[in-house]
Amino acid sequence: MNSFVPLSVPSFMGRELEYVTEAITTGWVSTAGNYVTMFEEQFAKYAKTDKAVACQSGTAALHLAFIACGIGVGDLVIAPTLTFIASINPISYVGAAPIFMDCDDFLCLDVDKIEKYLLKECINLNGTMYDIKTNKPVKAILAVHVFGNCVDMERLMLVAREYGLLVIEDAAEAVGSFFSSGIYSGCMAGTIGDIGIYSFNGNKIMTTGGGGMIVSRDTAKIERVKHLSTQAKANELYFEHDEIGYNYRMTNLQAALGVAQLEQLEGFIKIKKNNYFEYKNLGVSLLAFNENIRPNYWFFSHITEYRDDLIHYLAENKIQARPIWKLNHLHDMYKNCSTYDIKNAIMYYEKIVNIPCSSNLNNDELKYVAYIIKQYT
Q: What does the DSSP assignment read for 251-295?
């Protein structure tokens, strides 16, 4: 194999050039334009939710989601230590702090441990849960759906409602994943909690280059995030603003890409599913997806005792691979935050190597990657 095999890159096989060219030739390239509205409406229909708000990144979407949920200074948010730091930083943006939680065997939040934490480490005072050690209120759970897998939302929502907590869903990596059994059968990841977000970064299953989306069945929340995303304009003509807003609106150029990519999303998922099982047929062990979901098969996680050596060996053979993220409770800026019984996440951090999984990965490249992995192991 003479060419380099990347980890995860975008695939432009549809009408991307046509739509972006139209946006440019009509002059609508900034945050106003038909494609922004079109993308929001089509994504809302795909996700089976009433309304969606497009913004400039998944991080911006999370920031707005926390504000809309009233999370602020001194509040605590139960959050995974095993996730990209972009999921965690917006907690800090609003002056709150994370309580880092362990993961299950699908790399998502361990709901059993969340329930134990709330039962043993917290106290209910007038309907609000307080962390006993810090005497701070626990207001929400950040449910991150990792690599296209999904948090056990049926159990998580039961726990959240029992203890009076809001649920913010970070489905940045799970666009297209949905539940195939249980009370949420047919529901898309991101649409079950109080508010949900998605990311369309360049390495995601569908991309707008950068970009994000916010959904909620709560009309007040979704109207608030749209208002905040456009600088909180109370009167556009006279530049009047009624609160501190943000320049978070998605551009028409990004949205044009998004419309074209959304048209192909189910096709991308089919390709990635086929590639996932082809790797397994060729003898490459991969982390399983939860049986009660239809995943989007975004990332393929190989488990090995030789993480760093394998990554270097693959690089020597022109194959890009990556470990999972450094656990967030180990970062300097978060090392003083509370943690609860983190064990599984440490084990997976030490053993996972993510291997090439692009939707335009061809069969020769896939077989080559599998061959090199098997040759090493």
A: PHHHHHHHHHHHHHHHHHHHHHHHHHHHHHHTT---PPPPTTEE-
> What CA–CA distance (Å, rounded) separates 292 from 108?
14
- C-beta of residue 197 within 8 angstroms of C-beta of residue 211: no
In the block, residue with structure tokens 């980890």: 7
Helix 34-47, helix 252-281: angle, nearest 10: 40
d(CA 68, CA 369): 44
Coil, helix or strand for 207?
coil
Give 320-366 pLDDT, tens digit per residue: 999 999 999 999 999 999 999 999 999 999 999 999 999 999 999 99
Give per-residue pLDDT as tens, 250-288: 999 999 999 999 999 999 999 999 999 999 999 999 999
Q: Which domains does the chain have, with CATH numbers?
A: 16-264 (3.40.640.10)
Dist. CA 377–CA 363, nearest whole Å: 21
Q: How far from chain centre, in Å, is Cα 214? A: 11
Secondary element (H or E) of residue 221: helix 219-229
> How many CA atoms lie within 13 Å of 126's alpha carbon, on the beta-carbon side?
1
Rg (CA), the chain: 21
DSSP letter at 247 equals B
